[in-house]
Amino acid sequence: MSLWKKFLANVELRRIVVLLAIIAVLYLARSMMSIILLTFIFTFLVLQLVKFIRHWIKIPAPLIVVIIYALAIFLLYSAITKYLPVVAEQTVKMVDSVYKFYQNPDYDTNQVFKWINSYIKTSDLMHQFKGGIAVAFTYLTSIGTMGVTFFLSLMLSFFFTIESQRMFKFSRLFLSSDYAWLFQDIYFFAKKFVNTFGVVIEAQVFIALTNTILTTIFLSIMHMPQLPTLAIMVFLLSMIPVAGVIISCIPLALIGYSVGGIQDVVYILILILIIHVLEAYVLNPQFMSSRTKLPIFYTFVVLLIGEHVFGTWGLIVGIPIFTFFLDILGVKSIGNKKEKLKSAKN
After folding, report:
1. Model-level pTM?
2. Contact between 192 and 333 (Cβ < 8 Å)
3. Hey, where are the domains in the chain?
4. Confidence grade of residue 292 (pLDDT, cut at 50, 70, 90)
């Protein structure tokens, strides 16, 4: 038997080589990573939504896809033309209120603020703050580029989902080609990827929506200003597993103190604690089940490494990628419930 045939017969070695090749290709295409991830997320969520709707209403899938994307475009248009200026204005007001609160001379009577002011003057925080402003300005100037990326991802996901059956049928032809072994291994990893990455992202979106709705309702009861801005901030931070709820505590506490003093800070801390307990003991078991039931230490380590390797995207995709490799290595199976039931019966 030739060396090549021995390599093809060794499935484990072959799959390792294929996985390393996929990682190398993705590394070379890292400049397009935002388009790749957004396209995958949009496609997965739309396909899941179509499947859910067709479970209750038997109408053609392409019609559902057209309605979903038409509604999405309408909402984006409304957000850009009507709500974006309002959110921008409220964001400026929020920053201005925090700035005025800090500039208020009354805070000099508080020993804590005296210590904070002294620490800021004697440390390098102002230099770091200026660097942060420069980074923020860079992000603002790249909004146009991000908008193009978002639009392209939306269009690619639309073309995929509108012809999903044709796409799947055509893609299966690769599994019976002359290099079927290669595409079979790619399909193996793609299936694992969807069962881990896709399901975790879907669950995290539901968790973020639930956290945002509950937090916004509570903040409205407290008569907090700039609710749309705060709601968007909470949603984006809630996309970060576990740590997002804790991170959102800092700006919410600052705004709460500037509005209602220490009493509002206590209320917000209690709210964050309740939301964290709800996410940890209700939402995660309900949406994530046993797919990502990771210890908090592992979660934070993965988030730190993910942010270092992938940047901001790492905070969102770090946990799904980690669970994907846990599944590949056989440490912890992340397959969906139907697959687990089938394997249990067999």
Report:
1. 0.67
2. no
3. 187-346
4. low
